[in-house]
Predict the structure of Cpr6 protein.
Amino acid sequence: MEPAADASPQAEREAARCVQDAKAHAQDIAFCMMQMEVTQPQILRAVPAFRVLQYFGRVLRHGGDFYHLSRPASTIDEFCSHSWHGSAWMKISLLLLMKNGVAAFVAGTLCALVMMCLFCLDMLPGYFRQPFLGTGVAYKYGPWSLLTGVLVSCLFLLLWRPKQSMFLDRICINQVDQILKAEGVLNIGAILKHSNSMLVLWDTTFASRLWCLFEIAAFLKSHEDGLEHLLIKPTYLAPSTLVISLCVTLMMLFELLVPFVSVYVVVLKLSLLALSCVTAARLLFLYYGSVRALKEQLREFRMQDAKCVCCDLGHLDACLGSAVICDREIVSECICTWFGSVDGFESAVRSRVSKALAGQLGQFPCPYSWLLRATAPVLWAHMDMVAARIHAGDAEYAVAVAIQALAWWLALFPSSLFLVAVSYKCYERPRRGPADLLAFILSLLAPVLSLAGGVGYMYACLRFIENAIVGATLFAATMLIPTVLAWRTWSKGLSEAL
């Protein structure tokens, strides 16, 4: 029994010495990270954005060694910060829309214009049907602009090769060589210092991950006057955008292919419109909820709530069973030096990051230009309608439909989505009983009522005004002006409420 009693104090002294060594080592690592200087030039690496997006974001979906895809760089255009605990496909979809979305829209629109010209020259097949509004004459139709625009935009969305240099940890930090991996992590602060901007793919897990918060802290420290270079995007924006585009495409395709031959067809079209709008509205509800949750996370941000893998594992190596350095001590040491205290960092996140978020979401939780790209099938389908009139030699109605196209694309569809956000705000107010159910139903039906009202008003303008161009101009003007005023006066308060 005596040897065991003698061994206990010795084991305690050994454990205490290990703890002291670990703390000293952690302080050394923290000191090195605080300097924000690369340990060697080769450690500062970047990868072209298209490499990240190749094969639908393979590097984010699968493990493996992708270090060879990166190259040494003197500066990095964009540092991509994300939580590995978030949805991979949502992050990939968002990156595709952000990096390739504009190119996809431009290419799709140009190709749709080409198909419209070819149809006007009678170089493409079609079918004859009467339009919803017109002179009672059957026109030759073909969905070529719509289908070509959708197909080309999808191809560009997946295959476009943006050259912007990015830092993504999975590629730019060696995941196989443990020494190089440790050195890469050691240089995160320096890498952020040499990055011109930072993209945060925000999801519900981001604010709970310690290293994600460290990356924001390092960027704020190294770019003290550059909030405009901090870009925050909720990942739920991606599925919301894709579903809206799909619903709009189906509605416009049905509009082009199915003639108004009976009341049953009208009912079927309105049913499809309602189903598409309700689906899009429900998904937008989820997106606005994620924006609201993001803002609440920032308002209630606390460093102590953040999690890290080492603490979850009890500071033991999962394979060897030996003690490991606590990441929280390293990160806290850096943050206290940069911001004076943990409270100082928390205050910076609540104020500066919240300010950056409000500025980027603008006066509406989803940018107007983003909505225009999402509803581009409306524009492409109207190109087919214009082509049908030009092919028949009906110049007056061709111009009228072109004016209508701009009104629907620039005003009516964005306004219907704006009404979803207004409805969300109303629905979020506490209610009880039947009032809650009624508010929910009206919230989902808001875009349906908006678009149905637009159709009725357009019909009235073109039926009761003899000149189709004048009627279309009146319709467009009375739609565009209120839309602009509404977006400028209401949406700022709405964004703050969300």
